[in-house]
C-alpha cells in the first residue's frame, strides 16, 4: 500500500505534537477549501451501519470539542484517537498514517484502505485550551489543563460510539499529552473503554497521590505503551528504569500557563505497577523479547504490553521509522495486533 504520508515530518522534533506552536500542529486551523465532510451529525442516535465509508463531523451536548468520525463501512470496532499538546484532530491522524494532510480532512485524504482492511471506525476529538494559552490545545490529564472536563467528555464519547454506531469494542489511544490522558482514564475510568494504548505519553506523577489514586478496579482493561528510548521530550535517554521523567523544559516554556506538573512517571516503572494491579505479577528489567529495534515486555497473559523502540524520538513518525517495516504504519499495525489479542 502506498504510504499516505508523503510529507511526514523528518526530524523527530519537527513532528512533535507536544511542542506547542509548530506549523501544522497548532490548536486550530483547517484549510477551508478541503474541510467539507460527507455528512454532519448531532448527538441523535444513528445505529444503522455505514453502507459506504463516510466522514462525519459531530459534537456532544455540553462539550465544545469538535469530533471527526471516519465511519468505515462494516466496521467492527472503534479507536478514539487523542492528539498531543498543541496538536489537532487533523494532524494526529496524519501522524499515525490515516490522513494524508496534517491541516485538513476530507473523504479523499483518509486512508480508507487501512481502515476498511481492519474494520475500524476512527473517532478523533479536538482538544481544548485555557483562555490564556490558545495554542495549548490539550487534555486535562494532571500534567496539563485544557479547561474542560475531558474525563466526562471521553466517557460520554465512548457511550455515544456504542449507542449510535453499534460498536461495542472501543480502544482509547493517545500520543504524548493524549497518551497521558489515556493513562488517566486507565486509572480513573477503566471500564469506559475495552483497552488503552499510549504512544510516548506517560502518566502524570500527580496520579497515585491520596487525592488522585490509580484505581482501575479488580479486572483492569488491557494496556499497551509504545515509547522511544531516545525521546527528547520525555527525556528517556539513559533513564529507562527511572521512577520519574521530567518533560523537557523547552517544551513546557512555550505553554507554561497550561502546565500543572511537568513530571511524569517512567513508563517502565508504571508498567511494573500496572502488572501488580492487574494480575499481582512482576516485571523484570530483562524480561523482554527483541525484534529488530523493538524490545517488548508482556505480562498478565499478554494483557499488558510495553514496547521500547530503540533509537526512536518522541514523534509518531520516529516510532514508525525505527519500528522498521516499509509500510510506515507499524504503530497502527501494532495497535491492531494488540486489539486482536485482547
Automatic annotation (TrEMBL):
Superkingdom assignment: Bacteria
MF term (GO), any: hydrolase activity
PROSITE patterns, alphabetized: PROKAR_LIPOPROTEIN
InterPro entries registered for this protein in UniProt: AB_hydrolase_1, AB_hydrolase_fold, FaeB/C/D
Keywords: Carbohydrate metabolism, Hydrolase, Polysaccharide degradation, Secreted, Signal, Xylan degradation
Family: Belongs to the faeC family.
Function: Involved in degradation of plant cell walls. Hydrolyzes the feruloyl-arabinose ester bond in arabinoxylans, and the feruloyl-galactose ester bond in pectin. Active against paranitrophenyl-acetate, methyl ferulate and wheat arabinoxylan.
Hydrolase keyword on record: yes
Location in the cell: Secreted
Domain AB hydrolase-1: 79-323
Origin species: Pelomonas nitida
Any coiled-coil regions, as ranges: none
UniProt xrefs under SUPFAM superfamilies: alpha/beta-Hydrolases
Identification of the protein by name: Alpha/beta fold hydrolase
